[in-house]
TrEMBL record:
<protein>
    <submittedName>
        <fullName>Heavy-metal-associated domain-containing protein</fullName>
    </submittedName>
</protein>
<feature type="domain" description="HMA">
    <location>
        <begin position="2"/>
        <end position="68"/>
    </location>
</feature>
<dbReference type="GO" id="GO:0046872">
    <property type="term" value="F:metal ion binding"/>
</dbReference>
<dbReference type="Pfam" id="PF00403">
    <property type="entry name" value="HMA"/>
</dbReference>
<dbReference type="InterPro" id="IPR006121">
    <property type="entry name" value="HMA_dom"/>
</dbReference>
<dbReference type="InterPro" id="IPR036163">
    <property type="entry name" value="HMA_dom_sf"/>
</dbReference>
<dbReference type="InterPro" id="IPR017969">
    <property type="entry name" value="Heavy-metal-associated_CS"/>
</dbReference>
<keyword id="KW-0479">Metal-binding</keyword>
């Protein structure tokens, strides 16, 4: 398992947290999602062989949020 910290643009309310959490938890290989609204980040614990970072970013884009990896 790997932990990836993503910076997410456009998070502004508790509803955003639910949308982001749902988009990422729907990916096979994602074990844990920790959304920090105030920091604008999401920490994802995932299996990189089945849920690589680019898949996480794409899922967030599909949910309406731009994101990019950040150094943890």
């Amino acid at each position: 398992m790997k932990e990836t910290l993503l910076h997410v643009d456009g998070m502004s309310c508790p509803s955003c947290i639910r949308h982001i959490d749902g988009a990422l938890r729907g990916i096979a290989g994602v074990e844990k999602v920790d959304v920090k609204l105030r920091e604008g980040t999401v920490l994802v614990k995932h299996d990189p062989s089945s849920a690589p970072t680019n898949v996480l970013v794409e899922a967030l884009r599909d949910a309406g949020y731009e994101s990019r990896p950040r150094a943890a």
